[in-house]
Amino acid sequence: MSRIDAGEAVIRAHREEWARIVASLTRRFGDLDIAEESAAEAFAIALERWPTDGVPPNPGAWLTTTANRKAIDRIRREARRDAKHQEAQMLYDDGPPEPLGVIDDDRLRLIFTCCHPALAMEARVALTLRMVAGLTVPEIARAFLVQESAMGQRITRAKGKIKAARVPYRVPSAADLPARVSGVLAVIYLVFNEGYLTTSSDTDPVRSDLTAEAIRLTRLIRLLIPGDGEVTGLLALMLLAEARRQARVSKAGALIPLYDQDRRSWDAELIAEGHALVRERLATGVAPGRYQILAAISAVHTSAPDARDTDWSQVVALYDQLISLDPSPIVALNRAVAVAELDGPEVGLAAIGGLDDHLSGYHAYHATRADFLRRLGRTEESRSAYDRAIGLTGNSAEIAHLTRRRDELPLG
């Protein structure tokens, strides 16, 4: 087997098995550092051995066994060096099992551990992206627009706090679950978004492994609390976005905006499921939360057989409802896009006029502004805004799309 083929097999295994391996190691050894480092060592060994030995029949089992051996080696070294006899006992006795909570799933236990309220929200998201999604520290740093060293320290401190506070590795009890679920949903949504449109130029522009994992975890949580509207709303939102995955990137590797997508290639089954979930929540008559409103907006878009048939007045009304719950600059930016479709680019441009102080480092703000300026014939200003957007995004498909749009502007 060539080194390239073996490398591709390791990359595929990393996407499919990382979370499962880290979760199983965490359950056995009770230490996120040991789990993460041992899993990373196993993948490094695979990169070294698989080109000559061949890819094993069951890569996940091979990697799990190798990672477990590395974890045991580390614990033995620490036990000899620091006399950690109690910790070393894990080699021979896993001890009494932790309560499993209301569902038994290693990865779900891992995400609730990473999302424990003892951690700040930014630490929960970063830790989950590293431990559950397997993103590298540089990738996570780009997502947060912070320095790589600062993100590494954030993750290290989060793991240390979990260990010091003896945070239990389990799904919360049924009584505690509702209070914990909102933080978990926020993390899962960010994991989904990292797969939906990656922040790194070193990976595929769309990572279906991350979107699939986010959807799988949300389905599990919905089994736990089926009456929670925000869980259902998030699931609907992600399904309706995932349904458009095949239409979102061209063969040349450029992002295809919603209005240019071939709607015949959308996944009709996922759209039907997403619409059914939105209708289910509407039928309850309960005031919707943020994810339910976002899902409803997506349902309006995916109900239109053609982009020209989109009910923009309904989209704007839903954004008005959303902004009363979440008056953030991002929501205001997205609302402005809908307003521009309804009332014209000049109104849209005026709507984002006060957002520069908040979103100057956000590529989508500059891309939106570039589009409004292009439609108004303000070519040089549009070109400058496209340049700014291109410089701020790391996603290869977005870069290709924005570059094409900029280069289509008339000269002079």
Automatic annotation (TrEMBL):
SUPFAM superfamilies: Sigma2 domain of RNA polymerase sigma factors, Sigma3 and sigma4 domains of RNA polymerase sigma factors, TPR-like
PANTHER family, per the entry: BLL6612 PROTEIN (PTHR47756:SF2), BLL6612 PROTEIN-RELATED (PTHR47756)
Database matches in InterPro entries: DUF6596, RNA_pol_sigma70_r2, RNA_pol_sigma70_r4_t2, RNA_pol_sigma_r2, RNA_pol_sigma_r3/r4-like, TPR-like_helical_dom_sf, WH-like_DNA-bd_sf
RNA polymerase sigma factor 70 region 4 type domain location: 111-161
Name the UniProt record assigns to this protein: Sigma factor-like helix-turn-helix DNA-binding protein
Domain DUF6596: 180-280
Protein family membership: Belongs to the sigma-70 factor family. ECF subfamily.
Keywords, alphabetical: Sigma factor, Transcription, Transcription regulation
Upper lineage: Bacteria, Bacillati, Actinomycetota, Actinomycetes, Micrococcales
Residue span(s) of domain RNA polymerase sigma-70 region: 21-81
Gene3D superfamilies: 1.10.1740.10, Winged helix-like DNA-binding domain superfamily/Winged helix DNA-binding domain
The species this protein was found in: Microbacterium pumilum
Source superkingdom: Bacteria
